[in-house]
UniProtKB/TrEMBL annotation:
GO terms for molecular function: fructose-bisphosphate aldolase activity; zinc ion binding. The active site is at 81 (proton donor). NCBIfam families: cbbA (TIGR00167), fruc_bis_ald (TIGR01859). The keyword GTP-binding does not apply. Zn(2+) 1 binds at residues 82, 179, 209. This is Fructose-1,6-bisphosphate aldolase, class II. Binds 2 Zn(2+) ions per subunit. One is catalytic and the other provides a structural contribution. GO terms for biological process: fructose 1,6-bisphosphate metabolic process; glycolytic process. Dihydroxyacetone phosphate binds at residues 180, 210-212, 252-255.
Length: 306
């Protein structure tokens, strides 16, 4: 069942859980996401980045997601992740996306507001929800690259002014996470104090980006089969749970799915050297992704909320 964010995030905030936004760029990943969500009766957001669109094509990728989503009864939002331009947002809406993110966080405040409002005016005419971002995250993932020195925490007062000025349906904030598999050099830490201040000042559902767990068990499975991700470090489950308890209603996960896919491919090829059927190889990777998505859904608390 296709819905926009306004059909799932307000309830998530009220009931004290978060909805996972899981990135996809192909059939197998999409099947894994929907399979896990359906099995656990959880609402879900399927996210697509600009690079995923460049890789698979917007028409083909949107049709894969929409076709699978329409076959199940749980709420599914089809979401553009980190859209940088009005035109990209418009193209996604024309191709059936139910939600878009306009990420103008790299621009000055007034320019961020202006571009965000432009997207919102168009999107709302088509019953499409809009996520915006204030503050910036460190790290590298797809077309998003922010140097650590520029990774500003979101200012609570600025977040309040931005939410009022734009009327966005969801707001992504920066409280210490980062994109990619190498999120922390030392002990992982999130600024829950900043989150509490923001949640206390605005009613918009809040979003946490760069929140993959990058768990050691999956890293070790890659490394046992020839990989080299020894220093990878993500956001621990306890910090994710704290963030949800203090106002986060949507949590993005991309890196964890990539790691699971890679682990599945490496393991299968290592253990089955004579197999050359891509369906068997990719099918095993799909199973690994589904395990990770299911684990994240349980951590977020959205199971049985569909």
């Amino acid at each position: 069942m296709l819905v926009n964010l306004n059909k799932i995030l307000p309830r998530a905030y009220k009931m004290g859980y978060a909805v996972g936004a899981f990135n996809t760029s192909n059939l197998e990943t999409t099947q894994a996401i929907i399979g896990a969500a359906e099995k656990l009766n959880s609402p879900v957001i399927i996210a697509v980045s600009e690079k995923a669109i460049q890789y698979a094509g917007i028409e083909a990728l949107s049709q894969i997601i929409i076709t699978l989503a329409q076959k199940i009864s749980i709420p599914v939002a089809v979401h553009l992740d980190h859209g940088k331009t009005y035109e990209l947002c418009r193209q996604c809406i024309k191709n059936g996306f139910t939600s878009v993110m306009i990420d103008a966080s790299h621009l000055p405040f007034k320019e961020n507001v202006r571009l965000t409002r432009q997207v919102i005016i168009y999107a709302h005419k088509h019953n499409v929800s809009v996520e915006a971002e204030i503050g910036r995250l460190a790290g590298i993932e797809d077309n998003i690259e922010v140097k650590t020195g520029d990774a500003l925490y979101t200012d609570p007062d600025e977040a309040r002014k931005f939410a009022m000025a734009t009327g966005c349906d969801a707001l992504a904030i920066a409280i210490g996470t980062s994109h990619g598999a190498y999120k922390f050099k030392g002990k992982p830490k999130l600024r829950i104090d900043i989150l509490k201040q923001i949640a206390g000042q605005i009613k918009n559902p809040l979003v946490l980006h760069g929140a993959s767990g990058v768990k050691a068990i999956w890293i070790s499975r890659i490394n046992r089969c020839g990989g080299d991700l020894e220093q990878a470090k993500g956001v621990p489950d306890d910090l994710i749970i704290q963030a949800v308890r203090n106002g986060i209603s949507k949590i993005n996960t991309d890196t964890d799915l990539r790691i699971a896919f890679t682990a599945g491919l490496r393991e299968f090829l290592h253990e089955n050297p004579t197999v050359f059927d891509p369906r068997k190889i990719s099918g095993h990777a799909r199973e690994m992704i589904q395990q990770v998505v299911a684990d994240r859904i349980k951590i977020f608390g959205s199971a049985d909320q569909g």
